[in-house]
């Protein structure tokens, strides 16, 4: 099963923490919206594969990766962390996404080490942030 044209279910739920990481129906629908409105347009602009670092995270996985946020959008299937494979590519993709897609949050994480992008059905704030 695929989340979208370029994201498999296995890729979207992968974790190295050896913990259960299976979204429910509501979380899966949210993941499909993130893929449709954020990931796929970014992938089309980039023109080649993007690596998914993190997508859905169960509560256990979220805690195991060090996230203390009980409101992390990864918990609800509303956020994806991705990379082009280089900081320069990530910066280019980030700048394009800022003006060309609808998102809730677009975050430059650690000087373009990766991009976090989230989408919430009908509630998008269009926030651009950076984590250093």
What does this structure look like?
By secondary structure, the chain is α+β, with helices and mostly antiparallel strands. The chain has one domain: Muramoyl-pentapeptide Carboxypeptidase, domain 2 (2-Layer Sandwich), CATH 3.30.1380. Helix content is 36%, strand content 22%. The chain is built from four helices and seven strands. Strand 5 and strand 6 form a beta hairpin. The chain is globular.
Poorly predicted regions are: none
Instruction: Give the strand content.
Output: 15-25%
Structural class: alpha+beta
Number of discrete domains = 1
Number of helices: 4
- CATH structural class: Alpha Beta
Distance between the termini: 36 Å
Instruction: Give the strand line-up of the largest sheet.
Output: 3-4-6-5-7
The CATH topology name reads Muramoyl-pentapeptide Carboxypeptidase, domain 2
Helix content: 25-40%
Radius of gyration: 14 Å
Give the topology:
Layout: E1 2-4, E2 7-8, H1 9-13, H2 25-46, E3 51-54, H3 59-64, E4 79-83, H4 87-100, E5 105-109, E6 114-118, E7 127-131
Parallel strand pairs: 5-7
Antiparallel strand pairs: 1-2, 3-4, 4-6, 5-6
